[in-house]
Amino acid sequence: xxxxxxxxxxxxxxxxxxxxxxxxxxxxxxxxxxxxxxxxxxxxxxxxxxxxxxxxxxxxxxxxxxxxxxxxxxxxxxxxxxxxxxxxxxxxxxxxxxxxxxxxxxxxxxxxxxxxxxxxxxxxxxxxxxxxxxxxxxxxxxxxxxxxxxxxxxxxxxxxxxxxxxxxxxxxxxxxxxxxxxxxxxxxxxxxxxxxxxxxxxxxxxxxxxxxxxxxxxxxxxxxxxxxxxxxxxxxxxxxxxxxxxxxxxxxxxxxxxxxxxxxxxxxxxxxxxxxxxxxxxxxxxxxxxxxxxxxxxxxxxxxxxxxxxxxxxxxxxxxxxxxxxxxxxxxxxxxxxxxxxxxxxxxxxxxxxxxxxxxxxxxxxxxxxxxxxxxxxxxxxxxxxxxxxxxxxxxxxxxxxxxxxxxxxxxxxxxxxxxxxxxxxxxxxxxxxxxxxxxxxxxxxxxxxxxxxxxxxxxxxxxxxxxxxxxxxxxxxxxxxxxxxxxxxxxxxxxxxxxxxxxxxxxxxxxxxxxxxxxxxxxxxxxxxxxxxxxxxxxxxxxxx
Length: 546
Prior knowledge:
The protein is an alpha/beta fold. It has 3 domains: 4-258, 3-Layer(aba) Sandwich (Rossmann fold), CATH 3.40.50; 306-433, Luciferase, Domain 3 (Luciferase, domain 3, Roll); 439-545, GMP Synthetase, Chain A, domain 3. It is 31% helix and 26% strand. It contains 15 helices and 29 strands. Helix 1 (4-14) crosses helix 2 (55-71), helix 7 packs across helix 8 and helix 10 crosses helix 11. It is globular.
């Protein structure tokens, strides 16, 4: 069934129950205002800006937006883009789009104006819905993008180049639009993370979205009593598809703006959250804040918190070992996925497999996996190859890009570009991105293995290993290291620590600098290569000239 029917069901069965809470610690209201659907809570020393809505209001707002879109001529397979920070309006707008039969197109909130315009054109978007944080960026391109599409603004003080969302939906019907949808209808276009250039547009049907709901609940067992703390951006499949477990179980979720350790722990405590999904840097920051005394656990009631899970990137085993020492009662899980496979869960560790921390797991619920060589033949267990996945959540295609689609889809299999290996028990370990493998003197070196090793050093906060040009070996490994606050570290100390590694895996260059990560926690290695590979090329050219 189409995913919109889950919202309709929740509205009918749990209409008066709160489904979404928005918390923004950076805004403090000084008054109490009550609307039909919202309540702003006057803050005290521990309570910040907070709004909430029920399932019935969620559906009502989705229906109003859907009916407004229909009144403006939106029909099946039209595209409506969403450029919003996490807020209570985000998901009702998303579901309002789906209820019309149109395709929802979430946009990365970090996109520059040219990237926004590129994505709107690539996906052939008809309407852009944007919020106050993006006025400046949208204004830069408003003249060109408004020639063939509508611009709707969500927030106060609507700019002159857009139409006001609140005014548009105020008098629209709250009845469900009479649009027949099926599993085979197109539902959403998501964009790849863009870590290798301009992003690709990934097209999914309702069937994919429904499968992600089933996968998430099967893996994490959400019930009506669970409360999910959602911190990552909703434009990304990871955040939204984990929330789909709450949608399927009819349970509450908390949308938190802010990633500071105190902010996360305060929200988990005050809202009695049971499930928290973290990215590696946030988990690292929480542990460091506890170790330094900046955060005192006795200040929070975390007794309801049952599950901490991490995704979006390889998870260092040393991090989970530290976490379990401080939170021994927490279940831990990790999920692997791509936007092309409708987010997390096509490979899944499972809370019962804590002894396999470091692995991404086995095939997830309803999924198949295999590891193949360059000819796409299955490799023998223990050998490194490219990970491929197959299941109901595989994308339809890269929209308007048949060449790229043909490169990654064959016979229902999605070839992920991630290098992996399977151990004797059938658990899969990520080795690295295919494009990130360093080939030094003909030897394949997998940066993730070196990064995991270096993160065990108590002075290292984060690390990225890349290949840099070398006139003799082609390329050699460079370790960019971010040091923890309050610690010192020298090249000599790093080199001494790396003596435990095989000689060919030891970084040939040590660089101390901050590690850039995108909003989903992935290291932005193209940025690092742009800096350090160019530097080495220039140095090599100067050496030749001399």
